Amino acid sequence: MRLDERLIEEKTTDGVIDFHKHISKVRKEASSWLKGNDKNGVEHSRRLDDYLNRLIPDEFKEKLKPAEVFILLYAVYLHDIGYRNEQGEIESRDHPLRSKKYILEDPRKYLFDRFPSMKKGEAPLAAQAVAEVCYGHAHESICPLRNISNNFGDSCLCKDPLNLRRLAALLRLADEMDQAYIRLGHLRNSISLPAISPGIVRMHWKGDQGVGKALGDLVQEINETLEPVNDLLTEWGFPKTTVVLEPLVKKSPPPPQEQIDYKEFIPEHYIPSKCHDEKGDNHGLLHDYVLEWLNDPKRKLLAVLGDYGIGKTSFCYKFACDMTGYEYVPVVVELKTVMAEGWREVIQKEVRSRAGDSTPSPVLILDGFDELSLTFDKETVLKEIENLSKTTQEYKKVILTSRTQFFRNEEEEKETLVQKKFPGRGPRSMTYPRFERTYVSLFDDKQIRRYLDLCLGKKEAKKFWNETVEKVFDVKDLARRPILIELIVNDLDAVQNIEGKVTPGKVYRTITERWQEREEQRLPQSIVLQQKEEKVPKNIMLFMEELAYWMLIKGVYRLHFNTLRDAINKYFDNETKDLLRLSLNNLDYQIRNCSFLSRHAQGYYAFAHRSFMEYFVARKLAREIPEDKAKEIKITDQPALFVSELIDPSVYERIEPPQGITVPDDMVYVPPGQFIMGGRDNIRIASLQEGFFIDKYPVTNAQFCAFLNERGNQQEGGSEWINLKTSYQEEMRRIKRDSDRFAVESGFEDYPVIYVSWYGAKAYAHWAEKRLPAEEEWEKAARGIDGRVYPWGNEFDKEKSNTVESKIGHATPVKKYREGRSPYGCISMAVNLWEWTDSWYGEKEEEGKVLWGGSWFSIRHFARWVIRDKLNPEDGNNYTGFRCARTL
Questions:
Q1: 178 phi and psi, to 5 degrees?
Q2: Pairing, β 426-427 against β 421-422
Q3: Residues 713, 738 contacting (CB under 8 angstroms)
Q4: How many CB atoms neighbour CB 869 within 10 A?
Q5: Which of 75, 156, 400, 720 is geometrically suited to a Cys-Cys bond with 133, CB 3.0 to 4.6 A?
């Protein structure tokens, strides 16, 4: 477990500051705070971050309060800011005291501005706590640990007192490990970075006896320095930390381990995949393409990309099996294990197990880059790809697989895997990896039929093809993914009876519920339990949801059985806890018969495929969001899509404003409560505290013209409310000025008004006794609560929106796309015009105001609710309009 995992979902007591997100910002800003400090700069802080993860056993990480972890990690990146004195020069003396001073004098600079202060002009208590821990890393003779508070109170950070003394001891412990290495000077070439584990730190050295004596003196000094640290921490039950010096000798190779047979991981009915390039051009069989790459000594790095469930992992093991007799020894590494152990450790262990220490040419097959973490931001992606590069430089051939949608778009994919520069960051290091890319293709008809022949026999396969695959058009689309065709074949009769359009969500629901039904029928009578006339095994589905959800928020891919009991205690009411405990008593039997969940020999549980985890997360959210019971967390795109299929559309039929309130004409009511918001890497559960009204249609030329005739076309923000001097091709301005009056060109009265600035839109809204919607209000009105891709559902339809694909070339009347209405009844919210909102795009006003919706000028991609844009508030153009909202 990493320390920062303790911060996931944790916030200040007022809910304003998310600990995990805030520490991410601190890590990002630390580079500028520590700039110019070569020895004790940001790399030193990052090493301490890593050392703490290795020095502190998991059980003690759990004992620390989230607020204490937050303060400790904050101090890791601030404790050495005092190395630069008031004159801007590097000075070691008194730097811990200066670090404390700088934090207290300018807390805003160090991101404490959102924490409340007790008195005017006084640093927030959070800043005081971090400053105290930073000062505590000084030598014991300067800052005795027992002079630091072990009962610090800050009701904003935590309701309980915080032990700053313990945090300072932990910081000093990690700092001493690295400072010793930094102080070595010319001897640094004789010693490796410390090998750290709880209780013991090994420093391996090489050289003559003089070097050994000098290093021995250093280690003795370190252990003496650690005495007050150990004295304090052992009172907590923490293992005493000892530093030992060991000569660096060549170790005898470990005894050979029994190799894993890769054939065990190849599906029984394996169908070779095809591949294509980024333009979609067919490259033939993936196996042949990769073999050609393997035989070219000039080509080193290959990224194999594809959608979920498309067969990337099966290919890895099949290709590894087929490499028998080649000069390269295949080593398959499932990267989800890196989360627990680290890049170098996992890869070296697998290489030794498979290829031994003497083999010069292993080919690394690294499967599942997207599974390194269950939640990713762009900075983490770039950091992990560089970690991969450093770890794999010595290997001649490296294959990396990943989900395509792991990258937000093709541009980011290229930036991460191919380009030589980061935009705005300058050149990459020469060691940064540059991958060739190939893409795994969906199954074509021939591959589907071949799979069905193998599974069902030719006669039954032909029947299924003719009666189901060809007749139910969406089944064929689903069957193009190996994971889904396998599920469909296993439960043919149930899939054939799915009502309406067959979607991935319906297939997963059918498969899992059929498994549940079979489980109830086959459960031995000796362990059948009754509760309210229902068999308790039904609650296995709650177990699956809880397991999946726990994995998501913790960022892990497996959990121990005992951890699930903790999850149940935390998330369920007493009645459900009792039901689940009964179900868990029978779990071992049930798990052994579950095709989508596997149990490790030591009692760890993991999903057979990540998509199952995402489906069960979606089940939980689909039940909780309509009831406003979901935790407000970040999720990824696939769970969001599942949720949109699982939430019953009838939730929108029961919506009415509070009693006694009438919905104004041409407006709709949007209730308060939770919903799925955002796109790309920022999809999350959000909530509106109050309901509101929003216009059913965008504001028209006729409506805006009436406003102009009362108020005129005034200047605001450096421009007029509507630009009446500009036109663009066919999309001309349709309001004209005739002396002191304004008039709409005949036939365009019901078209949306364009060329209006944000100031003009806001002025109109005020005149109409309304306001502009905040972006979260606009988004909820457009997509409802369920995270759907388009206002009408998840499938694009050019007949329901005005995009480039519609080939109209200009905006259309506001009432044209009634079939594309949103769940609450709003019309034309998908690509007719971008629409102004009242929200700023970022933290700085100069970034512009948020636009939503796309326009006639956009391709279909912009009709998805992953797209938001921005525009300066004084600007107006031919593809931006607006609609208004009103508070109840």
A1: -85, -35
A2: antiparallel
A3: no
A4: 17
A5: 75
